[in-house]
């Protein structure tokens, strides 16, 4: 049975071979270490999760690898938590890229879905989408943490918030002065800072928890 372009439950072995590197990288990113394909339980779990993703996938879920990566991440993190090996650090860009499916896998958390939808509507006012946010998010963790701090600080400054909504863009000079950083730093992460600032301004508690790395659901 074919359940998407070149995605067939009758050909899982070939799919695994074709995406072997993707699976290894995914496990390595989650565990934060080198993965032994012969000895690591996490890799075995990832293979099972990949097969599960093939069986569950349909085109409405979007890109197959994004969905497969989401299932792998969920299953491995469940295993790590059960063995006290996991500290939650899911970033905002991961949540935005996979948020709705992540919630579906973890018992349909309606409140989080509503917040994500509200966030998407707010981004639209500034000509941004979740895809833009994922693409333009800082890749280095320290840069991301600094951008989040800038966003939170800026969200508490009425003048900056008002200018942001008036101009429909981040007032870089004002943000730079308020946060005591260079304009270059602000410009380098301006879309991420703006998007994250909107989460704080709109007071979306579950997304704020995710941004700050705090668990917002019970598994």
| Biggest beta sheet summary | none
Task: Give the rounded overall mean pLDDT.
Answer: 78
The topology string of helices and strands comes to HHHHHHHHHHHHH
**How far apart are the termini?**
32 Å
Task: Estimate the global geometry from the Cα principal axes.
Answer: elongated
The helical percent reads 55-70%
Poorly predicted residue ranges: 1-5, 86-93, 214-219
Rounded to an integer in angstroms, the radius of gyration calculated over CA atoms is 19 Å
Q: Determine the strand fraction and express it as a percent band.
A: under 5%
- Number of helices, where a helix is a run of at least 4 consecutive DSSP H or I residues: 13
Helix/strand structural class: mainly alpha
The total count of strands amounts to 0
Strand and helix map with partners:
Elements: H1 12-18, H2 20-31, H3 41-56, H4 64-82, H5 92-105, H6 110-125, H7 130-136, H8 141-155, H9 158-167, H10 172-179, H11 183-188, H12 190-201, H13 205-211
């Amino acid at each position: 049975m074919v359940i998407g372009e070149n995605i067939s439950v009758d050909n899982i072995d070939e799919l695994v071979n074709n995406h072997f590197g993707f699976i290894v990288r995914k496990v390595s990113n989650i565990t934060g270490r080198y993965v032994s394909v012969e000895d690591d339980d996490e890799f075995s779990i990832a293979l099972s999760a990949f097969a599960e993703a093939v069986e569950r996938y349909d085109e409405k879920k979007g890109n197959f690898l994004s969905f497969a990566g989401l299932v792998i991440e969920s299953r491995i993190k469940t295993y790590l938590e059960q063995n006290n090996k996991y500290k939650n650090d899911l970033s905002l860009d991961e949540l935005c890229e996979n948020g709705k499916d992540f919630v579906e896998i973890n018992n349909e958390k309606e409140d989080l879905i509503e917040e994500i939808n509200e966030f998407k509507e707010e981004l639209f006012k500034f000509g941004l989408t979740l895809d833009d946010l994922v693409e333009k998010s800082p890749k280095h963790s320290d840069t991301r943490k600094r951008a989040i701090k800038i966003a939170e600080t800026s969200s508490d400054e009425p003048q900056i918030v008002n200018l942001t909504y008036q101009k429909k863009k981040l007032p870089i000079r004002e943000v730079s002065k308020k946060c005591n950083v260079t304009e270059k730093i602000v410009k380098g992460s301006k879309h991420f800072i703006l998007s994250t600032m909107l989460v704080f301004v709109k007071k979306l508690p579950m997304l704020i928890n995710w941004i700050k790395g705090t668990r917002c659901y019970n598994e």
